[in-house]
Amino acid sequence: MAAVVMDGKALAAKLKGQVRLQAERMARKPGLAVVLVGDDPAALAYESGKRRDCQECGIYYDTFRLPEAASQTELLEVIETFNSREDIDGILLLLPLPRHLDERRALLAIRPDKDVDCVSPVNLGELLLDGRDTFQPCTPAGVMRLLEEYGVDPAGKECVVVGRSHVVGKPQALLLLRKNGTVTICHSKTADLAGQCRRADILVSAAGRPGLITAGMVKEGAVVIDVSMNRDAQGRLCGDVDCAAAAEKASFITPVPGGTGPVTRAVLMENVLSAALAHGKK
Ligand code: NAP
Hints:
Layout: E1 4-5, H1 8-25, E2 31-37, H2 41-57, E3 60-66, H3 72-84, E4 90-93, H4 103-109, H5 121-128, H6 138-149, E5 158-162, H7 169-178, E6 182-186, H8 193-198, E7 202-205, E8 223-226, E9 230-231, E10 237-238, H9 243-246, E11 252-253, H10 260-278
Parallel strand pairs: 1-11, 2-3, 2-4, 5-6, 5-7, 7-8, 8-11
Antiparallel strand pairs: 9-10
Helix pairs in contact: 1-10, 6-7, 6-10
Bound molecules: NADP nicotinamide-adenine-dinucleotide phosphate.
NADP nicotinamide-adenine-dinucleotide phosphate binds at residues 139, 162-165, 167-169, 186-190, 193, 206-209, 212, 227-230, 260-261, 264.
């Protein structure tokens, strides 16, 4: 039986609509600032996507673009300015930074209550400790939203996450654990990746390797979430999963594009709104 395709675009439109409704009623608008270093075309495209999302959601948007050769001091000054501006509730620093800049110091400089992508060590620590929870990392939180939307409860299920990055794999594992899944994290040194994946009731792949997850690695009836955004040999966007073949075995599956990507963007908008509410905006 073919899997239900999880429609990330539809869920994202619903979540953004809810943000817009609330933002429109507020006298002081939520605000997002994006900090960009250099002129990498992918980063510029990403930045203009954030601008569009904010326009759609009634969120104030500002950006600051530093030259590729900017110093650490200049970068920290820009972050500090956005930290102190009351019209800005969330700050997004586009990564990776040029190699001469210290990414960790820059992330630590973002005020935790404005760290809407939940990338700072403080917020990741809170996530680990099940502590203050104003917002969660956008991509893993988006995956949880998709599961919820389609009535998939991780409780008691075997959850396998492929990838252990700080932005996707590790926080994803923590969020599944919070929902009482039994979680395994796989990575490039995992001895039997296929065997681990075949045990999964919920399989989340975030390896960034096209074709890594074949239908033979998918358990009958599994929920398959493909977080990755790769380019195939023809330059088309694709995930890690052989989607057409895996869909013959899975119960639910996300497409790429149109799966987790749009939901990640919508969760960022939700996080900016949550930050604004936490800052007392009404
Ligand atoms: P990353 O930092 O490169 O991490 C990739 C992880 O996958 C690493 O932990 C790596 O293991 C593991 N891995 C790589 N090859 C593997 C293999 N052959 N077998 C098992 N594990 C393997 O990437 P990321 O930032 O987490 O992003 C992952 C993917 O998600 C990328 O395609 C990215 O574009 C996409 N992404 C999508 C969204 C979205 O909104 N949907 C958001 C962010 C990222 P090691 O640790 O052992 O090296």
